[in-house]
Write a structure and sequence with these properties.
alpha+beta, Aminopeptidase, OB fold (Dihydrolipoamide Acetyltransferase, E2P), 15-stranded mixed β-sheet, four-stranded antiparallel β-sheet, 6 helices, about 30% strand, binds calcium ion
Length: about 350
Amino acid sequence: MPAPRTPPDTPSPVVPTVDYHKDGVQHGHLRLPYSRDESAWGSVMIPISVVRNGEGPTALLTGANHGDEYEGPIALFGLAMTLRAEDISGRVIIVPAMNYPAFRAAARTSPIDKGNLNRAFPGRPDGTVTEKIADYFQRALLPMADLALDIHAGGKTLDFLPLAAAHVLPDKALGARCAAAMEAFNAPYSMTMLEIDAAGMYDTAAENMGKVFVSTELGGGGTATAHSVAIAKKGVRNVLIHIGILKGPPVVEPSVRLDMPSADCFTFAEHDGLLEPAVDLGAAVRRGDLLARIWPSDRTGAPAFDYRAAMDGLLAARHFPGRVGSGDCLAVVAVRVD
Ligand code: CA
């Protein structure tokens, strides 16, 4: 039976302990009521910082939309410590760990309700904890933003070339502004991204609201590196300069433009077993080249299954753990745009 429709004026249960309209630096929480065995009138306390200095643009900066991706939280807990109101014009809203229960559990999805925040938009004020977080971003935070930057990586099961991403949008003018912000982030790779499943994504919610939206995939494997963290920190600063909140100059290094022209970019596993990579991230491949093999691991003397590139390009993402299962995303090949 479908859930009853939520009246559109249902208030969010989330209470911010910061004032979005006050000048200065504030550190507080989004207090989300979560009644449970251990705490009858308890709440999930999602850290938030607001830095404001007068009128001007608003940037909404987020990490850990998926809880096992770390460049965003590292860069943003750091930014919240160091950003001074006198250094900016306008407002920066920082939520380093968007799906905070998932982040605490070092998991992609929430341990409370198994919610994948990036498939939960627009959310519900009377839904699960994850749906309530989505609803608060949808109706309270995103409407305040001129630009939203959501810092992702591959998490425990994927690894990516360090890239910033923007989508092809039906609104070409908005698409161009998103692409310009992606270029401003200046990751080593800048990708025009094709989504497998855009419904319910934070990206889609922001874009449908007409917001400039930039996402990233800065590595993966459920950890961060000194290199990927440096990319995140530089990118955040560059984007704040791009939108006019921070004064320049940006740090600009070479960035390779990538495109995902069709669903042929994706290779999905159709077998369970042991993953043997044949090429590493960044390697050039031709159509028909071996990307990886999957060995049946329950016997010797059985051949591996070969997985080949469906198009020319370079390996932009791969399955991370050493074991792979049928249905897993094995590889993403992207096309270099010169
Ligand atoms: Ca992610």
